[in-house]
Each structure stands twice: as C-alpha cells, then as structure tokens.
C-alpha cells in the first residue's frame, strides 16, 4: 500500500521577476547588497527510500555581513552512507530564515519506476506519470511528436542518471523581488555540479501558492482563472530566467548540468509555449500586480486584485452559444444514444461551415475530441460523417481526436486512481486488452474497417509492430523467452549430472523452482526423473516458440505429445503434482530479469544484433501482461504481501 505523501505546501514558484513597484503600505526592508544573505543547502538520506536524498535550502539574514552568498552542504550527495551527514528537520528553519527551498535528489531511475516514484511525494508521483513511461524513459511524444516535442531539445538524456527535483521555493513576503530566489536556485545547482555526475534539474512551475489560498477563496470563478494565469505566467518567466526550458509541450521545465546541452543555447524567447486554444480567454498580463500585493495584508491584496480584474480589458468568452455549451457537457456526461440525439438537434439547422460546429471546451476539445475520449462510438461516427474537418483539429494539448484517444487509452492501460490519499496506482501488468467501445472509436478515427480477426486482436492488445502472436506476444519478447527456455533446459540438464537431488532443489528453490509447490519440490529431491521433467518442459516450451505458437499450457502439452519423449520425464513431473504453469512463470520471470528495461540488460548485451533485427513493439517489455494472458502468474519485480506479511501471488 502506498505510503502517505507529504503534500507540497506551495509549488516551485518564486515570483522573482521584474523590479518591484512597491506599495505605499509595504513594510520598509533595507535593499540587500551583495553578501547580505547567506544561503545554505543541506542534504540527508530519505527516511524511507535509499535512492532519494532530501535537499533543504534556506536563506538567512546573518548578524554580520558576508562577502558572498554561500552554498553549503554537510554531506556528499553521491554517498548514501556518509557518516558526516548532519541530521536536520526539513520542516524547521532557523529563526532568521527568510526563504526556503525543498528538493529531492533522485539518484537513479528505478526498474519499478512508476511504483517507486509514486511513493515519496506528490511531486515525484506527478513527475513520473506526467513525463515518463513505466521504465523511466521520457514519453515518446515529448521527443518525437511533430508538435508535442516542443523545442525538440530533449531526447534521451532524461532516461538515466540523477534527477534534481525542485519541488518548492518560497521567499517571505517582505523579501521578494530582490533576486533571492535566483540566488537560491543558482547556489543549489552549483553545489549539485560540484558533487554529482551529470544530472538534470526538473521543476513544474506552480500557480497555487500557500499565501494566496485565502485570497483565492474570495475570488469569483473568472477572477480565480485570471489570477491563476497571472501566477503561472510569472512563475514560468522566473524559471526561464534561471535557465530552465520546457520539456516538450508539458508543464515541466528542465536544466541539464552538461554545458553542451542545447538547453543552454536556447534563449527564453525561443522556448516553446503551447498555443492557446481558440476559445480560451487570453487574460492580459498585469505587469507588477504580484509585486504590488507581495507584502499586503489579505484584505488589501484582495481589493487590489479585484480592482485590477475590473480594470483589465478581458475579452468576451468566445466558447460558443448556450446551446453549444450545453452540447459539450452532454457529450461528456450522457449515454451514447442520447448524445447522438442531442447532436442531431443542435447541428440540424447549422451549415457545415458554421464556426459554432468547432465549439471547444476549456481544454480546447471539440465535440469529436470529447466523444472519442468518453468512448462513444455512435457519436464519433455521427460527428465524423457530419464534419470531416474536425478529424484533424487539435485541442489544447495539440492532439487530434485520435491522438487524444490514444493518450487516454495509454493512461488507462498503465495507471488508475486510488481513494487512498489520491494515490495513483500503476496497473500495466494487469492489462487485459481494450474494450469494445475503445476499439470501435479507434477503428473509426483510424479509418479501419473490416479488420481480420488477428488484426483486431493486435489492436485490442496494443500491438504496434503488426506481428504479435495472438495479438500480444511480440517478436522481441518471443525471442527473449526462447533464449531463456533453451538456456534453462541445457543448464538444468547439466546440473542433473553433477548435483544431488537435495543440492539441486536447495540451489534453485528461490529462483527457477520458486513457482513449484513445496510438496513437489520435496519429491524432486529424491526423484531424478521429476527434476529432468522440469528441465524438459523448458524444451517443449521452446518448441512452441520456435513454431510461432503461443506458449500456453495446451500448446506446451501438444509439443510434449508430439515429441515422443523417452524416458517420459515430463509426464512424471506432471503426474506427481508439477505443472506447466510453474515452468512458464519461471521462464517469463527469468526473461524479465534480464530485459534491458525491466531487468539488468544481460539479454541485450548477449544478443544485441539479433534483437535489433526484430521490429519494436509497445508490448516488448510487458512481461506481466503477456505472462498473465498466457495463463501464468503475472510476473513482476514488485512482491505484494498481505497485512500478515504473507505473499500474495496475484496483484
């Protein structure tokens, strides 16, 4: 069960932007000179996760002037067992602290990336699920999509190596707009460069700050949206001013420590910003508004914001007329048949080229986007026949309706929400295929009709290579399983000649015999034929793969039947309680453990040329999913236990 998160009190946002236009009632604070402030960054091991270090920085107004801002650490961040680390409470700052920074040094990517990153904090969870795939690789669309790749400067550098995640920067009100935030970021990055191998610093500029929460409670909906947009604009400008650049089209920004990385040569003005959807209000920038209210009391700040909103030249909402607004809501909430009736009523009297046909919601989604995302194939079909132009229209995420649906299906395949502290649970291994509604929408938007049964199965199970056996066993996974089956057969056969039964079982009981029931393992100690049968079933498993057949139990038994095996070792193993499942689960688990993403990479090191000659597929590394579809245990590196500490085989 996921551990409770420490929610971020305020996002990575310091409104350290333009020279402050001071308000008349603002407390007088002496302008800082060089060296007025002391900046300290302290590192300590995370109390629960050995692959994370907590980095806490704070700014003090020293009693005596210092010549330069000092970046200080009590430990080397590369050493997780450094005895010189000073224990500290990251929630308690010195009395004279006037600013603080909370960050995490994620020392390397984890094999169980989604599962591991979900636990330490909301920031690590958001980072994992918004930017990366389940193995810690930057999502393909942020590297390859013609629009969502953004500036195109981010490639594979995020796929390995340390990440310096800046979760929060907050400067006390009287000291804002004085460059302290920039100095804190610069000091932290400089210290990281001095003690860590190349890393990438990441942050997500925030737009909801702790000290503005009470203010926002008293704003209207439109005022809150406008204030949100203003905060976000200022936060993004701040992070760009210290060198961070947007990751693809996402809301995340990064800065690579390598001096030759393209992020250092891309100017802030050249950095990518997603286009604003046509209907979204273009809230005007309010210049020094945030500077004006930085040191005000809540009531005074509230009145200043409301006055600025009243004076702002806010353009009218161009979403659509009331009928279209109602239609967008109905498409998202009503049953498919009702949606078709509503579409007919609204569009009946509109010309094909009427601009109202392209009405959008706040996220830039058209009626076709919404119908696709909400899995309403009848509505999708009706809209596509009525207005083909909507097929290529992009939403606020710069996705066509097909791309939006594909993104939604990928989310449903890999994760689900949990009621436990709003946690996100990775579920890739539990995938069992897309539903009929999902497939119907995919086929319509792809223009696919009259699919063969195998083509439909490949679409059902997310195959992208067009060659998956039964729709889900890809050529690369088939080859990995074949290598394991042949290797384990030969290895175990050799061990039979040199090891006693007791030694054979004891040596292998926690590895290749892990899925064999305990009573059967006990019999194997004294029955050499049973030990040989376990080994020979690996060969029959391999025979299925060599024949391009799915290695399910019935096919393995057919291979056994056709082999005319003598002596009948496999039959002896099966007749005395052994199962094909125990062999199949072991082979899937062994292949997973040597996979380049799910394991230690040994398979790629040994057979790199052969693997590269095979087509890539979305299913190449989904060992839990494929093993489950074959009727075996859904293998995983994650071991689940009950509240009593007993192993749970099924997740």
Automatic annotation (TrEMBL):
Stored Gene3D superfamilies: 3.40.630.30, Ankyrin repeat-containing domain (1.25.40.20)
GO function terms (MF aspect): acyltransferase activity, transferring groups other than amino-acyl groups
Region (Disordered) location: 1-40, 65-95
Domain of life: Eukaryota
Residue stretches making up the N-acetyltransferase domain: 166-262
Compositional bias of kind Acidic residues: 76-95
Ranges of Basic and acidic residues composition bias in the record: 1-11, 65-75
Name the record gives this protein: N-acetyltransferase domain-containing protein
Organism: Trematosphaeria pertusa
Taxonomic path: Eukaryota, Fungi, Dikarya, Ascomycota, Pezizomycotina
């Amino acid at each position: 069960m996921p551990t409770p998160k420490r929610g971020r009190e305020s996002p990575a946002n310091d409104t350290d932007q333009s020279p402050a236009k001071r308000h008349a009632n603002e407390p007088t604070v002496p302008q800082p000179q060089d060296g007025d402030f002391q900046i300290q960054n302290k590192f300590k091991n995370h109390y629960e996760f050995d692959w994370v270090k907590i980095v806490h920085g704070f700014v003090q107004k020293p009693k005596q002037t210092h010549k330069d801002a000092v970046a200080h650490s009590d430990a080397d961040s590369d050493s997780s067992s450094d005895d010189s680390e000073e224990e500290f409470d990251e929630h308690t700052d010195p009395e004279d602290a006037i600013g603080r920074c909370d960050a995490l040094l994620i020392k390397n990517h984890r094999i169980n990336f989604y599962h591991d990153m979900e636990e330490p904090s909301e920031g690590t969870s958001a980072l994992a699920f918004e930017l990366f795939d389940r193995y810690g690789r930057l999502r393909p669309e942020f590297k390859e999509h013609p629009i969502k790749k953004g500036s195109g400067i981010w490639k594979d550098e995020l796929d390995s190596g340390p990440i310096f995640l800046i979760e929060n920067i907050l400067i006390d009100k009287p000291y804002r707009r004085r460059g302290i935030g920039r100095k804190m970021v610069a000091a932290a990055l400089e210290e990281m460069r001095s003690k860590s191998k190349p890393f990438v610093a990441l942050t997500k500029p925030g737009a909801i700050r702790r000290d503005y929460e009470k203010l926002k409670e008293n704003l209207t909906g439109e005022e809150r949206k406008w204030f949100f947009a203003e905060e976000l604009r200022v936060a993004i400008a701040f992070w760009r001013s210290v060198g961070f650049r947007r990751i693809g089209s996402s809301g995340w920004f990064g800065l690579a420590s390598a001096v030759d990385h393209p992020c250092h040569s891309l100017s802030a003005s050249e950095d990518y910003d997603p286009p604003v959807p046509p209907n979204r209000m273009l809230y005007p920038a309010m210049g020094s508004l945030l500077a004006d209210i930085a040191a005000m009391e809540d009531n005074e700040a509230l009145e200043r914001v409301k006055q600025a909103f009243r004076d702002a030249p806010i353009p009218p909402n161009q979403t659509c007329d009331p009928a279209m607004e109602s239609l967008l809501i109905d498409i998202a909430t009503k049953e498919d048949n009702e949606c078709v009736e509503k579409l007919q009523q609204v569009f009946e009297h509109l010309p094909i080229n009427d601009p109202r046909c392209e009405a959008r919601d706040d996220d830039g989604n058209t009626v076709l986007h919404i119908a696709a995302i909400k899995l309403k194939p009848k509505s999708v079909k009706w809209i596509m026949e009525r207005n083909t132009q909507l097929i290529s229209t992009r939403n606020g995420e710069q996705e066509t309706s097909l791309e939006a649906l594909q993104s939604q299906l990928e989310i449903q395949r890999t994760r689900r929400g949990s009621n436990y502290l709003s946690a996100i649970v990775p579920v890739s291994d539990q995938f069992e295929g897309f539903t009929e509604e999902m497939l119907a929408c995919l086929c319509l938007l792809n223009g696919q009709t009259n699919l063969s049964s195998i083509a439909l199965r490949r679409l059902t199970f997310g195959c992208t290579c067009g060659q998956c056996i039964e729709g889900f066993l890809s050529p690369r996974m088939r080859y990995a399983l074949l290598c394991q089956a042949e290797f384990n057969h030969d290895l175990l056969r050799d061990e039979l000649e040199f090891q006693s039964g007791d030694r054979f079982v004891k040596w292998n009981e926690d590895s290749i015999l892990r899925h064999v029931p305990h009573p059967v393992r006990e019999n194997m100690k004294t029955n050499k034929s049973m030990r040989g049968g376990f080994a020979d079933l690996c060969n029959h498993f391999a025979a299925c793969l060599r024949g391009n057949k799915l290695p399910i139990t019935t096919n393995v038994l057919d291979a056994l039947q056709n082999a005319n095996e003598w002596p009948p070792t496999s039959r002896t193993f099966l007749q005395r309680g052994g199962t094909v499942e125990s062999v199949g689960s072991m082979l899937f688990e062994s292949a997973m453990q040597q996979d380049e993403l799910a394991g230690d990479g040994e398979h790629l090191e040994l057979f790199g040329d052969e693997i590269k000659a095979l087509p890539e597929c979305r299913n190449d590394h989904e060992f839990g999913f494929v093993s489950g579809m074959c009727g075996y245990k859904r293998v995983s590196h994650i071991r689940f236990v009950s509240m009593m500490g007993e192993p749970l085989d099924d997740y």
